[in-house]
Amino acid sequence: MIVWLNGAFGAGKSAAARELLDLLPGSVLYEPELVGYGLRAMLPSKRLDEVPDFQDLPAWRRLVVETGAALLAEAGGPLVVPMTLLKQEYRDEIFGGLASRRIAVRHVLLHPGESILRGRIAGRGEIPAGSGGDRDGGGHRDGDSGHGGSATDGAAAGTVRDWALDHLAPYRSALPWLTADAHVVDTSELTPRQTAERVAAAVRAGAGACEIVQTPEPTAETLAAGMLLFDEEDRVLLVDPTYKPGWEFPGGVVETGEPPARAAVREVAEELGVRLDGSPRLLVIDWEPPRPPGYGGMRLLFDGGRLDASRIRDLLLPGAELRGWRFVTEEEAAELLPPERLHRLRWALRAREQGRPLNLEAGVPVG
Length: 367
Known about the structure:
- This protein has helices at 13-23, 33-42, 45-48, 58-75, 88-100, 114-122, 160-166, 168-181, 192-204, 260-272, 309-313, 330-333, 339-354; strands at residues 2-6, 28-29, 79-82, 105-110, 183-185, 222-230, 236-241, 251-253, 281-288, 297-306, 322-328, 358-361, 364-365.
- The protein is α/β, with parallel strands linked by helices.
- The protein folds into 2 domains: 2-204, 3-Layer(aba) Sandwich (Rossmann fold); 222-365, Nucleoside Triphosphate Pyrophosphohydrolase.
- Strands 8-6-10-9-12-13 form a 6-stranded mixed beta sheet, with helices on both faces.
- A hairpin with an 8-residue loop joins strand 9 (281-288) and strand 10 (297-306).
- It is elongated, with a radius of gyration of 23 Å.
């Protein structure tokens, strides 16, 4: 199990995490910011200049999951993680990766009032960036670590106070989804020990359980079937999964012994509550090459036809699997889909126009 302590700079995450180790038998402190420091030491400067925060590095998010799983395998006990996550898509990617490895997550938000936060920040003083000691993720010394740091070690921020104040607005913007997702502990009037006691009691009661769907990580090539559904303006339906980054088509992995078309129909019913009649028409079959850590495999897209306004109104949105859905034009899809899915969509739309399926390899027609 992982106990993820979220919250703004100054919320008391690191101090509470150290106290929590005494209250959860066998627990181990896991600081993902150390993964970020390692990447900053190893990645080329050119790459680091492209990202404002090491949380924006896909490698950091992937390694946070892999390192957490490895630590649990070695230590056995729960991991206590004091780390700010303000971007919901990053939370989904990391927690979804942990869920796919059958690792339970308890998400706890330490949330003092903003006036308390500002007071604590003001009391930090001005400590030069990169001066050592306990640091926040920007490379500043502080008793409350757990923020994704600047790729330049926070030097532009100048002081702990300026850096922390700059992060209050993003934190405030993230509060709607944070408070809806995590178990909230108001730390305004609590000592670190009292905070840890509240968190430990909440964890024992099962509070803050991560509800992201547990999708097992593939161990070999997979066969996946997706469904294209259209509205009356011929816009295509895309969904935003909680368990992986980026928008996608409704669908999923074909189970052993299951016909691909039936798998696509099943996934649409499970994900969106849409029950399709008849057998959908194949649009494209696309071989996706392996790109480590992914294994690739065959990807099929079927034509599920048009949904009228009444059926669109009845679309379901299972919170454990999907964060959102929307109908988009081909041009709008280009802003949402990763390149390989966009290529697949574009050829599927051409196949729909031509009335015949297309065979693709890595998104390019063959034959």
